[in-house]
Amino acid sequence: MNTASSESRRSSPNVLARIDRLPPSRYLVSLVGRIASGGWFEFYELFMPGFIAVGLVKSGVYKFGSGSMFDPHLFASFLASFFGGMLLSTAAFSFVSDGLGRRAIFARSMIVYSIAQLAIALLSDPLLINIARFVAGLAVGMQLINNDSYLSELVPRARRGQYMAMSFIFILTAVPVSAFLSALLVPYAPLGIPGWRWVVAIGATSGIVVLFVQKGLPESPRWLEVHGRLNEAEQVVAGIEERVQAELGRPLPAPANDTPEVEANTGQWLEMFSRFYLPRTIIMSIFQFAQTIAVFGFTAFVPQLLIKQGFTIVHSLEYTALIVLLAPIGAVCASYCSERIERKWQLVGTAILIGVSGVGFASGHSVPVVLVCGALISLGNNWMIAIFHPYAAELFPTRIRARALGFTFSWSRLSAIFVSYWAAALLVRFGPPGVFAMIGAAMAAIVISVGVFGPATNGRSLEVLAP
Question: How confident is the model at residue 84 (pLDDT cuts 50, 70, 90)?
């Protein structure tokens, strides 16, 4: 072991203890918000396709229905191309964050995403749009994994779940914003330009916004220490302490003595398949494959589901916007309950809520029933999203965190590619009940895998949870 690494391991408990004893503060909230700013535009893009779907078909760019995965004119290909890029990014490039640092990923990925989004807004050929969507997915996939690793390492353990869930209160406002913008613009053509193009173009501003908001973010102290950069880790923590102490106007509490040593930088990709981590890798892979079936199987097709149940295009967009209003409320529930209720049981509870509400949505034809059940599905989906991000990040060590999150998260991108075609085929053959039968089966898989085999994580140090 080299000198820098030895020094890091001897001194690191002090640094980790100093992070874990930080009290609540506006400064930590501001750091969480700045990191989450990139996530806002990512979720704008993730949920936008379902809201602009009718506009894309009305313009003649795509068509609804089932068919070959190689037909670029199907709306399902518009969804699948983005998730194909995310699949490659999360599966193959997540090691970049572990190697280069958490902060370095932000700007580059968001610039690429913005350029790709602008191209989508300008193009009309479905094949070229799909290629641009694939590139956007490459950029977004890296950012999602990086955000989870970064946030989990920067905040104290006693409020880790709360801070990470809090970031999703902000991030998930992107869902109703994109839905309402679509309801306002998609049925019309402002200045002679189809409304769906305006909705996409708004997302292309993300690179400039994120570069400005995230300027000056500190690097993850845990990542710095794992890589033997002790002096830099000390400077980052000292800077955070100074800001928090100045805000509170009193000395910070003394660090605890029970903080474990920081891990050595010995992580290898295969470690996630070791005897200790393999069960966690399998649990999170099953969870990720299943949760996307519910989240995107519903959100991406909700306007079409409503049209199938007899609502007009305009009404389907308006009702969709009302349904997804509960998206940020789901994150509020997650933030409030994150440290009060064990996170694994929140994942199980939200899966049950989604499954039961899906039955009501599929069988309901009156506006009140559809809106209430749809809103509960939206609440459950987004509560689940806000909780699984901290839960997954807690299960793996800093040395392989981004790689493990990338691998397990890639299963969600794989299912997202296929769920576009599965949902379209089920909708044509069986209507909304067929789609929700698929979602119900996915939720049952989550209840069994996480509920029976998932470890408890609340209030435990990352270094204890994942040695």
Answer: confident
